Amino acid sequence: MFDNLSDKLDKAFHILKGHGKITEVNVADTLKEVRRALLDADVNFKIAKDFTTRVKEKAIGEDVLTTLQPGQLMVKIVKDELTELMGGDVAGVNLSGNPSVILMSGLQGSGKTTFSGKLANFLKTKKNKKPLLVACDIYRPAAINQLHVVGDQIGVEVYSEPENKNPVEIAQNAIKHAKANGYNVVIVDTAGRLAVDEEMMTEIANVHKAIEPQETLFVVDSMTGQDAVNTAKAFNDRLNFDGVVLTKLDGDTRGGAAISIKSVVNKPIKFIGTGEKMEAIDVFYPSRMADRILG
Ligand code: GDP
C-alpha cells in the first residue's frame, strides 16, 4: 500500500500555504510521488502516466481554496480522480430474473468457490433471497466437495451431478431444479484452470450462452498484479462479463489491480473478498478504495 501519500503531498505543498495558485513546477515533483506510488501498487505504467497527466491538468491553475491547504486540495484532486478511475459510484448485482442466474468465472485459486459461498450467504442474510449453489466443475471432484462444505456452513443447498461430465447440462438442470423448488437466485460455480486456455474458455462460453445469466462475475486474486489485468481481458473478450470480484484484499496486496482492471476492461468492480470466512465479503466502494490507496 502507499506509504502515506497524503502526508507526502501535504508536505510537498505546505510551502505554498497562503499562495493563490499551485504552479506547474510545484506540481511536477508531487506528481512524481503519485506516479511512483501507483507503480509501486502494481498499476500499469501507461495508466499511471495518463492518470498523473489528468491530475496535472486539473491542478495547474486551479485556485487553492482558502479553507484548504494546497496539499489538501491536491490530495482531493488525486482522490477524486482515483475514485473516478475505479468506477465512480457503487455498482449492484442484477437480481431481476426469476430465478436470477449468476455465473462465476475466473482462474483456479482465484477464490471463486469461496466467493460463491460468500455471495450466497450475503444474498440470503442481507437481501432475504433463497439462493442455490451449483457445482459445475467436472474435472476436480474435490471442487464439488468444497462447494458442499461451503454450502453446509451457510445453510444453502448445493446442486451437483458428480457423474455428469457436461457442465451445460448440469447448469440447465440446476436452473430447472431451482424453478421447481422456489429458489430465486442460482449461483453457478464453474471450473477454473491455472492459466487461461482455449478449452476452458470454450467451456465457460458454452455455459454462458446456454443459461444466459443475468450477471456474469469475474473473480480475480488481487495479489496477482499485472497478470490480473491480462486474465481479466481474456475472460472479458469471451464472456463480456458484468462485473469484477477482487479477492484477497486482506493480504499484503496493494490494490493497484483495481485501477488497472477497471481501466483495461471498463467493467465495474462489484465486490471484494477480505478473508477466508464466509462473512469476509464487502461491496466495492471506489471512494473507500481510493482512501485506502492514499493511506
Ligand atoms: P477457486 O479455485 O477459484 O474456487 O478458489 P478457492 O475458493 O478454492 O480459493 C483458493 C484459496 O484462497 C482458498 O484457500 C481460500 O480460502 C482462499 N481465499 C479465497 N478468498 C479469499 C480472500 O478474500 N482472502 C483470503 N485471505 N483468502 C481467500
Automatic annotation (TrEMBL):
GO annotation (BP), single: SRP-dependent cotranslational protein targeting to membrane
Residue ranges constituting the SRP54-type proteins GTP-binding domain according to the UniProt record: 268-281
The enzyme's E.C. designation: 3.6.5.4
Catalyzed reactions: GTP + H2O = GDP + phosphate + H(+)
Signal peptide: none
Root EC class: hydrolase
Binding site for GTP: 106-113, 189-193, 247-250
Localization of this protein: Cytoplasm
Superkingdom classification of source: Bacteria
Main location: cytoplasm
Keywords on record: Cytoplasm, GTP-binding, Hydrolase, Nucleotide-binding, Ribonucleoprotein, RNA-binding, Signal recognition particle
GO cellular component: signal recognition particle
Record remark: domains: Composed of three domains: the N-terminal N domain, which is responsible for interactions with the ribosome, the central G domain, which binds GTP, and the C-terminal M domain, which binds the RNA and the signal sequence of the RNC.
Protein family membership: Belongs to the GTP-binding SRP family. SRP54 subfamily.
Assembly with partners or alone: Part of the signal recognition particle protein translocation system, which is composed of SRP and FtsY.
Function: Involved in targeting and insertion of nascent membrane proteins into the cytoplasmic membrane. Binds to the hydrophobic signal sequence of the ribosome-nascent chain (RNC) as it emerges from the ribosomes. The SRP-RNC complex is then targeted to the cytoplasmic membrane where it interacts with the SRP receptor FtsY.
Protein name stated in the entry: Signal recognition particle protein
Phylogenetic classification of the source organism: Bacteria, Pseudomonadati, Bacteroidota, Flavobacteriia, Flavobacteriales
Record gene name: ffh
Full protein: residues contained: 1 to 295 of 445
